[in-house]
Amino acid sequence: MTDSGRKIQEVDQYIAELPEDIQAITESLREMILNTSSELKEEYKWSMPNYSYKGLVCYLQASKKHVNLGFQKGNELEAIVDRDILQGTGKTMRHVRIKSLDEINPELFTVLIQAAIQLNE
Q1: What is the pTM assigned to this prediction?
Q2: Residues 6+ positions from 62 with CB-CB distance below 8 Å
Q3: What is the C-alpha separation between 65 and 53, in angstroms, rounded?
Q4: The YdhG-like domain covers which part of the protein (predicted)?
């Protein structure tokens, strides 16, 4: 279980205002992110939850139909996963689009988050 002291009220509120199915996905991803490393700090910036360790690591961006698990240095993560998993055409940012709870892949996402943390070392 996560240390609830690491969860911040702004993110609780952000999740509470989402559609119910999207809330479940977002909360599940949040738990997974916080469980990946006790070093990650939850913040609320740019109107969404962000997680940082020596700089930004990942973020959650919810919409009506899906949640993006995004990575600030996602372009550097493409080497470790199947190219189709990470989406986005920005200079560095990439994301995984999740439309349902069963699309959450804890093993894969944890590897991505840990690799993203390593990029900030």
Answers
A1: 0.92
A2: 14, 15, 18, 22, 25, 26, 48, 68
A3: 29
A4: 23-117
Domain architecture of the chain: domains with CATH: 4-119 (3.90.1150.200)
- Find, among 62, 83, 59, the residue nearest to 73 by Cα: 59
CA angle 76, 37, 120 (to 5 degrees): 35
Q: Which residues of 36-63 are buried (b: 16+ CB within 10 A; e: fewer)?
A: bbeebebbeeeebbbbbbeebbbbbbbe
- Say which amino acid occupies 18: L
Quick one: DSSP state of residue 87?
B
Q: How far is CA 107 from the centre of its chain?
A: 14
Q: How far, in Å, CA of 121 to CA of 118, rounded? A: 5
Instruction: Report the C-alpha gap between 97 and 91 in whole angstroms.
Output: 18
- Give the tens place of pLDDT for each residue, 27-62: 999 999 999 999 999 999 999 999 999 999 999 999
Task: Give the pLDDT score at 4.
Answer: 57
